[in-house]
Every structure is written in C-alpha cells, then in structure tokens.
Amino acid sequence: MDVTASPAPAVATTESQRDRRQRILHVATELLEAREYERIQIRDVADEAGVALGTLYRYFPSKEQLFANVLLEWSASYEVAVGRRREGAGTDAERLKFALRRSVQAFEKRPNFFRLIAVLEVVQDPNVAGPYAAYADRIERTLADTLVDTDPDDAVVITATTRALLGSVLRGWSHGRYSLAEVRRILDRAVDLLLA
Fold it and tell me: Most buried among 50, 118, 160, 183, by the most CB within 10 A?
C-alpha cells in the first residue's frame, strides 16, 4: 500500500520558536481535555495559542501530527510518575499494578485521550506514525521497567501481554462494556496470574 506522507514539520530552532510550538501543544492538550478530537478545529487551536494558522501548520502540517505530538508530550508525566515508584521498594507485581492503575487513572481523568488513540493507531502517515510509535514505545518501556526482578525474556512477554490487555479493557470501558472497577480488577488479576 502506498502511503503519502504529510509534509514534515518545521524544526523549532530558536527559543521563541520552541516556545510557540510548546504553546500550540499546550492549547491543543487543553482543548482535548475539554472536547472530543473530532470536535476540535485546527483554527481553534491557532486562535487560542495566539498564532497564525499558517504558523501552526508549519510546526504541525496536519491535525493528526499535532495530536500525535500532544499524546507523546502528555505521556511524559506517566513515565516520570511510574519511574519514581520503581525506585521505591516493592515487588515486580506491585510496581506493574501501580503502572497499570496509573494508566487507567490518567485515561479516567481524560477519556478523550484514549479515544484519540483509536484514531491515531491506524494512521499510516509516517509523520504521524513516528510520534505515535514514540508514545507507544514510552508506555511499553515504562511497563517493562517495572519488572526489575523478572527474567528479561519473561519480562518481554509480560509487558506485551499487559499492554495489550490494558488497551483491550480500556476500549471496553470506553464503549461502556466495563466499569473502571472491573478494568482495575481484570488488570490486577492478570498481573497476579502472570507473575505468580
């Protein structure tokens, strides 16, 4: 399948350009917290960020590129929070449960971010797939880093399994099939089974 890439984003090289790019990401994040991805217009982002529409498109040539970068930036706080917990005492099971609960909590507070994943995970444009893959890699690496006492070969399987299960049960929650209590119970039980 031939996939046509959107234009590559401009690189922010000066401090004012980096500030402008960061302001665009901040506004887009706030808008996604308040409304669904499909209801956000790029012009709204530009207006609220105080930049011309052409300026926004120079940094983020498509709406998908912009919001893939929003997701990537947003996930940095998850990595930090789970990393701090990893430094404390506890078992691999306790650390992995914490990481999964933290993810559920983040999407509970910001359900539009989870719905955004369903949009971005199927986009084949390399300029969207790149930031989305970096987001997915960060989540997988963060989960894997909780397994400090587990055989590395087993850790790969456990990480892939829990990440897939997390996506599946959150999708079920998003569609109303699971309550958040059920999501947490399923994830906790899966960790107990995997690390028994």
Answer: 183
Provide the domain count of the chain: 2
Distance CA(135)–CA(155), nearest Å, equals 20
Parts of the chain with a pLDDT under 70: 1-4, 85-89
Q: Residue 20: which domain range?
A: 10-61
pLDDT at site 2? 44
Amino acid, res. 33: E
Q: DSSP letters along the chain, please?
A: ---PPPPPPPP--SHHHHHHHHHHHHHHHHHHHHS-GGG--HHHHHHHHT--HHHHHHH-SSHHHHHHHHHHHHHHHHHHHHHHHHTSS--HHHHHHHHHHHHHHHHHH-HHHHHHHHHHTT---HHHHHHHHHHHHHHHHHHHTT-TTS-HHHHHHHHHHHHHHHHHHHHHHHTTSS-HHHHHHHHHHHHHHHT-
Predicted TM-score (pTM) of the model is: 0.87
**Dist CA 13 CA 30 (whole Å):** 25
156: tokens are: 């790969």
Q: What are phi and psi of 195, to 5 degrees?
A: -110, 20
